[in-house]
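Re: the multi-chain job from yesterday

Posting the exact lines I submitted so nobody has to dig through the queue logs.
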Amino acid sequence: MGSFKGHALPGSFFLIGGLWWTGKYSFWCATRRNKCLGSTRLASRASQRRLEVIESSLMLFFSVVGMLAEQFAAGGPRLRLYDTSENQWKDLMNWQHATMYLFFSLAGAISLIVHATEAAPLALDRLALALAFFIEGFLFVYHLHGRNMLDVHVHQMLLYGVFGQALVVFLEVFHRGNITLELLRSALCLLQGSWFWQIGYVLYPPRGGEWDLTDHNNIMFVTMCFCWHLAANMLIVGTLYCAISSAVRSRLKRTPPVEMGLLKHRDGELESDDEAV
Amino acid sequence: MGSFKGHALPGSFFLIGGLWWTGKYSFWCATRRNKCLGSTRLASRASQRRLEVIESSLMLFFSVVGMLAEQFAAGGPRLRLYDTSENQWKDLMNWQHATMYLFFSLAGAISLIVHATEAAPLALDRLALALAFFIEGFLFVYHLHGRNMLDVHVHQMLLYGVFGQALVVFLEVFHRGNITLELLRSALCLLQGSWFWQIGYVLYPPRGGEWDLTDHNNIMFVTMCFCWHLAANMLIVGTLYCAISSAVRSRLKRTPPVEMGLLKHRDGELESDDEAV
Amino acid sequence: MGSFKGHALPGSFFLIGGLWWTGKYSFWCATRRNKCLGSTRLASRASQRRLEVIESSLMLFFSVVGMLAEQFAAGGPRLRLYDTSENQWKDLMNWQHATMYLFFSLAGAISLIVHATEAAPLALDRLALALAFFIEGFLFVYHLHGRNMLDVHVHQMLLYGVFGQALVVFLEVFHRGNITLELLRSALCLLQGSWFWQIGYVLYPPRGGEWDLTDHNNIMFVTMCFCWHLAANMLIVGTLYCAISSAVRSRLKRTPPVEMGLLKHRDGELESDDEAV
Amino acid sequence: MGSFKGHALPGSFFLIGGLWWTGKYSFWCATRRNKCLGSTRLASRASQRRLEVIESSLMLFFSVVGMLAEQFAAGGPRLRLYDTSENQWKDLMNWQHATMYLFFSLAGAISLIVHATEAAPLALDRLALALAFFIEGFLFVYHLHGRNMLDVHVHQMLLYGVFGQALVVFLEVFHRGNITLELLRSALCLLQGSWFWQIGYVLYPPRGGEWDLTDHNNIMFVTMCFCWHLAANMLIVGTLYCAISSAVRSRLKRTPPVEMGLLKHRDGELESDDEAV
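And the result, structure tokens for all chains:
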């Protein structure tokens, strides 16, 4: 990944994922809070499930693409792990990134099985996702050997985000459907995305003008900058949440429900999905 | 902040905040425990909400004032971040303190939205407050580079209080309305306040007579002194709690309720606020 | 405390406390599990409460005695904190031990108020106890500066027990009346007691024959020995639990209850005490 | 244990244990989810209990055998702890391994008592198991002094698995019967088993060809390899779970239940075992 693009690409994925989660959970929370207005017209249980299946498939697809790109793109190891001619491991960095993608693809696959077939208990999708984030952080910890002080520091900041997210998703195993945790997860995902971009700008400034990687003032600035990213992402999540909530409510009020009898029944189903842990 | 006043000021804010929380939660707990005496006359749901709105507004107001003071007071950076003439960051300390205030103002704003509009889920105010304390501690961790042993140590003691408080508030996301956690939070807030004063006295003794910043005995004394602060603050919280409880009970017993039918109804509302997480 | 007796004394207190807790909680658990046999004859709610009051009073009494002993026994600081003639702190060790006793006396006092007056919420007694254990460990952490390797190591082992116990008691704030946690707490308290004795034997062997404080094999042995203490204390707790359970059951079966109507009522009260958190 | 066999043996035990747990919990979960099809024919409460008793007995038996083997096999200490002729501890490594087995035998014994006699509260078996894993990790931490970098690293990876498992089992004290945690525990147990084999291959390659124990690339590879083990074990657990689920469902559908009245009753019993914590 040692390039600007190598950081911007995963950053963009996390940014899109964070925005998607913010939207999804805000919308579901708004429909849950407005049941009296017949909100299940907007999000029936079947449509929720379809959404989850699509999300899982996309996650699986892009993770597999990421794995293949790390292996077969120019300079990749092409599935060879050990270079017997030089007696050393081949492209360990690429293998490590491929391993990270592997766990996200596992999380996608498990989530797909959980939501498409009902064979597995619901909470497994969160557990797999928590493990994926944990392994991402775990590999980053041993990724930083022998680098410059500032290089290590920007990645350490990233680790706070990654492990924080792993913890939040793990808590969701026990507190599924808790909107507070879901919004926090979205904000941390956005934070990860925007911080990947920031790392790119700090380590490989696209417009030239290198940073002094050993100046302690830079470390203090970077720490503070990480907090600003968090604040900005919290603002984005908050704004989106409020916008979606009021949009849902105004639309529901404009078109009053007619078929109340049918909706009541769907409501029950809707809830059972959230609480069955 | 490198001055006595720079530590006494935030200390005073935390002391006032801690006393306020002790009073508020003791009062609400006393009214909850004495429902049979018709205590909702003293704290109806509407009055509780008004109180929360006022508290959030004050928090928001003082945090914004703090941010402005850090930026525009004598020697502040006046919103300039990088000094191009000297090629270095400008007044990073002030920027860091402003960042801390920023998260408290965010917490105030979110709490204001939660309690004034009902648009957002209740638990968000605790989450935002937990994040504010966490970020305060997080910035302090990277604040201590290259200082003297005792200087680092007194700030480490502070960190125990700050991170402990962040943890307690985060637990309140899941256990809202748990009086044990609320009193612990109040005591830790008082601890933070009184410890800021203590730091001022140790590092910038107002009556002269410098401390030896490298003597290990001083470190042992300071550790112990931190425990005494905690004990004293627990005593203060305990005394206030008992005083308020007995005051509420004696006042309720003097004036028996008449309109029982109405009160029953309000009771239900009162509880729903505490338990809806 | 730098002597064999100085470690044996607190060790004995913790041993007695651990045995007491094992007995108390085993007995209560046995009465709860045998309600159908009318076990409330053996442990009514009033008698439980009386027991708690006595326990708290004893805890308060001995902690105050401990504080006074640390201050006024031969070589104590007699409440003077700073020796102005030598410009240094006076007997910091004694002051630290007195501080530890202070928090246990606070825990005793709070527990006394909780159980004697009903003014305070039940969970506060556990919170105060958790804080007492936490502060004990906290002070020990900064107690070990500049000692020998083995000396530091035996105290580190102690810290595992102390912080483990603080954590378990803190969990009891949320899971009050969980017999698993209560037995774990008893075992850890016994562990602390027996380990204090072991520390005495290692650092101040009463029969002479000093240990080599820098030999790494000794450290490995001591680590293992700590595990044996834990195993032995788990066996003691287990044996006591089984003995008390079967004693209660056999006694209840010998004397069948007659006044069933009355007992039913008391049962309800009994439970409410355990679950009201 | 300093040999290939010494790592392969415990590894095999953990592998068998992990597979067993995966099968057991998958089967029970499948019967729970298919109650409407009369699944209690396959797993009545009595048969569940019998299974637990057998499992505990085997665990106790093999742990005791392990202890005896460590003591009396060739080169063992034969219960002598201190070699007075050489003034040093005798075979501390063997004693440490025997201590680990001791705690697993304790866990087995407690589990046996819990499931065979009903005298003890259910959650105790999980607590004892959590302690066994914790002590295993605890002794490993102090097991690694003065070894090579790679040797320390492969054992550190093991520690993640061991402490992770201790944490998961401790969580089960509070969330008994949570299939997500049970499957995670099974996967971590398999991970431990396969990683023991991997350690054997890395440190004592059976086909010769030593690894360079100080090369940093090897450390990076080993970290990644640990993640692959986890992924592979998650796949194994997942496949087994799906296979068992569909086998249970297809068999239940082939033979429809006849004696519905009786089964209803057994159902109630079945559940009470899982939820009584």
